[in-house]
Amino acid sequence: MAAPCFLKCSFSVQENYPVKSIAYEEQRSKPCCNGLRKHLYLTGGLMLYYYVMDEFKHIKQERTEEDAEVQLTDLPLLSDAGGKRSVWLARLLLGWQGSLRQRHWRQIGAVATLLLLLLAALVVLSPLRRNSAPSLVQPSPSRNPFLATYRSHPLLIYRGHSGAVGGVSWSPDGTCIASGGEDGTVQVWNATTGERVLTYQQYADALYSVTWSPDGTRIASTGQDNSVQVWDASTGKRLVTYQGHASSVGPAAWSPDGKRIASGSNDGRVEVWDAATGKHILTYLGHLQSVLPATDSPRSVNSIAWSPDGKRIASGSSDRTVQVWNAATGKSVLIYRYHFVTVFGVAWSPDGKRIASGGRDRTVRVWDASTGEDILTYEDHTNIVRAVAWSPDGMFIASGSSDGTMHVWNATTGKRVLTYLSSAFSVAWSPDGKRIASGGEDGSVKVWQVV
What we know:
Blueprint: E1 6-13, E2 19-27, H1 35-59, E3 72-73, H2 81-132, E4 150-151, E5 156-158, E6 165-170, E7 176-181, E8 186-190, E9 196-200, E10 207-212, E11 218-223, E12 228-232, E13 238-242, E14 249-254, E15 260-265, E16 270-274, E17 280-284, E18 301-306, E19 312-317, E20 322-326, E21 332-336, E22 343-348, E23 354-359, E24 364-368, E25 374-378, E26 385-390, E27 396-401, E28 406-410, E29 416-420, E30 426-429, E31 435-439, E32 445-449
Helix pairs in contact: 1-2
């Protein structure tokens, strides 16, 4: 019976880790067994080699590049093809392992690190890239025209005022903007270039509101001097001065036909008068008659808006109400009491069926102009709502707040579609509905892109 052949593996270890050489010796006393046994012995030797390598990794903590070299020497000369393939495979595996550790490990680690950093940068920057250049489309009945959420860069910034801007108004043709502020001036300027066209300076103190006449020929402005002044929008010549108020005048609004002006004062009265002659027509005293927790509670009128048909007037007051009354008789039609705090902004929808009002409670409420029934409440602002304005098509509402933002939201669903990063004491849509002008505490007027 032929004696089995076997592989004898001897490991020689130098002073420096790891192994300098591995010698395989084949002892043959009888004819060689079949190729399968040779493969098994060689595989066992390789497994033992990796075991020894793992053990040495725990013993030595530092190594040099030359220590990582592993050499395979004195492999047996085998005549059969199976043995030769086994030896060739062993050489290939051991040589690849040594050369990889010696020459390429650091390069592979560096490349992997760079790839991870690149991947992290793409993950972090991808949402910023999406919002940095929003895509805009023209509005359609079935598609939301606002594709971006936040915008911080206006189309134009007008810095002609030296104090906070309390009133902004577009000319009916959309070419110019009139703005008034605490510096006591009304400035008319080009809405596209920002070039100043006219400065009206007839107030010694702060100016509160500015509004164009429907025909675009006149401008009405109010201030602390208890008067309302009407002047020519082209020349700046004063045409009429109404002095029927006993206190500072805040809001003023033209009737849709341009024949009358309604103005509200800190004394709680709303006066309606002839825009051409300044003749008094009627006085509304509804806010003075409001029942408040204390007799000395303020009743100043902060906002006024005519209905589109010119038959009714809505006025918001510090008495915590919005009151709708007949513009011809002064008779109260409806009192809306659901803000519970001061009301600063009031606006009619273009179809005259709804009213939007905002105030100190940080909300904008949309309600039925005939019944006073709540339709929706917008609650995304975090501070006082100073102004509200409907888009010309009645689909959206813009609301300006002291929280440092101006929002545009769907007037039917209450879903916010645009946020402008700027505080707004006054808000006005352009006649074509494509831009919004806002005046703020910093004395600037900003023109924003909508669609």
